[in-house]
Amino acid sequence: MGPITVAFDPKLNSTASAEATGGKVSNRSLERKKFFASVSTTEEKLVEFLRSFYEGVIAGGVAGVVVETALYPIDTIKTRLQAVQGGGKIVLKGLYSGLAGNIAGVLPASAIFLGVYEPAKQKLLKSLPENLSAVAHLTAGALGGFAASLVRVPTEVVKQRMQTGQFTSAPNAVRLIVANEGYKGLYAGYRSFLLRDLPFDAIQFCIYEQIRIGYKLAAKRDLNDAENALIGAFSGALTGALTTPLDVIKTRLMVQGSANQYSGIVNCVQTIVKEEGAGALLKGIQPRVLWIGIGGSIFFGVLERTKKLLAAQRPDYKKNSSDSKLE
User: Fold this and answer.
1) Is the pTM for the entire model greater than 0.85?
2) Could you give the number of structural domains in the chain?
3) How confident is the model at residue 320 (pLDDT cuts 50, 70, 90)?
């Protein structure tokens, strides 16, 4: 009888070992895979968020500065129309008064708005059913507007005080407002600003995005620059007209200074209607609609073009462009 030999099967031994330990080996291996898969997914989401935020900041800042520079005189005329009381005359000199200081505020405000809007929109569109895309756009617009208001309001206060001739330079305006009214003076009319801008931002971007979705479905292609600009003009003009009374209230509260002619939003409305008639709540509607209509055309045209240029820098741009979905 020859010597006894023992055949060794690595697979069998591994299985037996796993069975002997209650399957802990295979479970640990599976847990490791799940862990690394989870880490990978988290990193991808973070990269996607940062990329969306970065592109939104750049595109928003560029679009905001271009619009503000091009249309500042119309905005100045609108502000003076709304601020004047009774039969006062409108001064047409110094229509670019305060532009430099305003751009210093518009740039970060526009960047913050789009930096919040784009990631929020993408997240909401993925979380909500497709038929609720309008809710995603409305909500993202309101969130972006609220975040940007922290910079927008002081910028608006200084700009409108300069447009109405109260100050000659932005630094001087800030110094005197703080000296006479405290830091809260830089946020004069903050609640009325939110009352105007949150609905405005939400409605304008919702109208714009929804029309683009419908247009893409009908045309079965991406929109060109002229089409984006036309849709932006329509959404801007419509929203501007609807929110003019809110804009008048905001302007009156912001330019009143330490005089405190109005004690709040309700008192402001009551005083305007009593002393000037309900029609005064629509003061400046023509230049406002013109300004925001043209501004919407420029803003959204520049915005979409900048977003395309930034997207073209991505390594996966060609793949994404061929497999792109409607937003």
Assistant:
1) no
2) 1
3) low
